[in-house]
Amino acid sequence: MLMTIAMLCNNLLHAQSLLNKKVNVTSGSIAASNLLNSISSQGNFNFSYSSDLIPQGKTVTLNGDSKTVKQVLDAVFEGKYQYKERGNYIIIQDGDAYTISGYVVDRNTGEKISYASVYENQQLASTLTNEQGYFKLKLKDKEQYPTAAISVSKGMYADTLMYLKTGFDQTLTVPIAPKDYILDSIVVHPQVEKNWLASLFISSKQRFQAMNIGSYIAKRPVQTSFVPGLGTHGRLGAQVVNKFSLNILGGYTAGANGVEIGGLFNIDKGNVRYVQVGGIFNVVGGSVAGVQIGGLYNSTLDSLKGVQISGLSGMARGKLEGVQLSGLVNYAAAGAKGVQAGGIGNISAAKIQGVQIGGIYNFADSISGVQISGIGNISGGETEGIQASGIFNYAKDLKGTQIGIFNIADTSTGYSLGLVNVVIKNGYHKLSIYTNEVLNTNVAVKTGTKKLYSILTAGAHIEKDKKAYGFALGLGKEIPIYKRFAMNTEITSGIIYTGDWRETASLIHIVPELNYRLNQYLSIHAGPSLAVYYQNATGHVEGYKASIPGYNTLPYSTYGSVWIGWQAGIDIF
């Protein structure tokens, strides 16, 4: 025991001797680095310090005299730093910095806990325990923060908070208690860490932090980062909401309440307000209210209220209220109230109240507004408004208007305008065989509803040396009169071929017909017609009709005429 005490005293005396050695200094101004070299030579020892502790060009002015090494160091560093002696070295350290280190253990078993989050709330300093449960947390600003609030968090364990005195290194063991869980209803919130794109840029340590301290959120006015985890808020950057955020390459924060700019990308766990701009992409785990611009891609895992502009594709998993623009495809999982415009198409998995404009297609669960596309529109539910496409439209329950070549609806109380209009359940489907004063044999397909149906017809005049062929499109409407009687008003427009395609005639037929239903599948119809005819023909082709209709007409121009005709036939179905 006495031997041990003697050795400790000897070491203490040796440690004090370096700092208490007397050295001679020259009166006047001298470069700080030269002064340190001089006193280390006089004292026969060495200094160890970080070069950034002495600013380049720093000078010190001293009165020439014999001084202790510590007095000289205080003059050089203005008393800001600490000095420690190790052997023949004096180690100069930032006097404002200190470390909290130790182990995190299970309170019940004493087992060391790996990947627990240890962080200081005020300074936003954080670390994770290693696989052996060890941590080391570097802190500073002991004057500004006289107490350090150290929190320890780990999934499946209760959070632990300690208040420690600051200004000196401390080593401790922190026991944390497992949580007692009562199985109850589970609420699942969107997690940006599980997004496929965001996960490529979030490290495993950052994921552990998210699991451990997801409920801890701080607010700061400004942050700058180079990549996720390397910035002014360090590893706790993902737990901070900022008013202004600048991410040189990319950032991973808790949210933005102002302006966020990323050279390549922005990843936010929570909500974004006002403006977010990412060179390549933005992924937001909460909602967006404002303007979100991504060079290629935007993903909002909750609602979007404002404007989302994407070079390729934009997505909102919550409801969209505003405008969604992209070069390729837009997606709104909970419906949209506003405008979706995509170079290829738009998808709304719920009702859209507004406008969808797609270069190729649009899809919506239901519509109250307008769908416009180059090829096709699909509405899986009730459709109020307009579907207009270059080729086809489909609506499960049409209460508005369809405009396209092919229009299909399960049920309809609206209007379909196109070449073929099919209403599956309550539609108007007729195959009509009829004759008139122009062509003695005609077949027409009529599809749509009684309110408005389309007519596609083809006919021929079957008579030796008086051939003629006709093709026409039209619209019709059936008005019930009494029991089995109805009135059908139809208008068709088409061409009449009489042997020379260069001299085809045009014919418009307006026909009001009385229709009588014989049974469920058959009806007969007949009525007068008004014909408007035009043909700029220069001659007669042998074997074909020489004149249409074949009796006197009333001319309205050199090549045009009108007449009163007739039509009669039978409808099947």
Overview of the molecule:
This protein is mainly beta and 573 residues long. It folds into four domains: 2-94, Phage tail protein beta-alpha-beta fold, CATH 3.55.50.30; 98-176, Carboxypeptidase-like, regulatory domain (Immunoglobulin-like, Sandwich), CATH 2.60.40; 218-396, no CATH class; 428-572, Porin. The chain is 9% helix and 56% strand. Strand 45 (554-555) and strand 46 (560-572) form a beta hairpin. The longest helix has 19 residues, at 2-20. The protein is elongated and about 135 Å long. The N and C termini lie far apart (116 Å). Mean pLDDT is 88; it is low at 1-15 and 182-189.
What is the typical, i.e. mean, pLDDT? 88
End-to-end separation: 116 Å
Helical amount = under 10%
Unreliable spans are: 1-15, 182-189
Domain unit count:
4
CA radius of gyration? 43 Å
Strand content: over 45%
What is the strand tally? Answer: 46
Secondary structure category:
mainly beta
Principal-axes geometry comes out as: elongated
The major pleated sheet works out as: 23 strands, mixed
Number of helices: 4
Topology (SSEs and partners):
Elements: H1 2-20, E1 22-25, E2 28-31, H2 32-43, E3 46-48, E4 59-62, E5 65-68, H3 69-77, E6 81-86, E7 89-94, E8 98-106, E9 117-120, E10 125-128, E11 134-139, E12 147-153, E13 160-165, E14 170-176, H4 204-212, E15 218-227, E16 230-231, E17 240-247, E18 250-253, E19 255-262, E20 265-268, E21 272-278, E22 281-284, E23 288-294, E24 297-300, E25 304-310, E26 313-316, E27 320-326, E28 329-332, E29 336-342, E30 345-358, E31 361-373, E32 376-389, E33 392-398, E34 401-403, E35 406-412, E36 415-417, E37 420-423, E38 428-436, E39 441-448, E40 453-461, E41 468-482, E42 485-497, E43 505-517, E44 522-534, E45 554-555, E46 560-572
Parallel strand pairs: 3-7, 8-14, 15-17, 17-19, 18-20, 19-21, 20-22, 21-23, 22-24, 23-25, 24-26, 25-27, 26-28, 27-29, 28-30, 29-30, 30-31, 31-32, 32-33, 32-34, 33-35, 34-36, 35-37
Antiparallel strand pairs: 1-5, 2-4, 6-7, 8-11, 9-10, 9-12, 12-13, 15-16, 38-39, 38-46, 39-40, 40-41, 41-42, 42-43, 43-44, 44-46, 45-46
Helix pairs in contact: 2-3
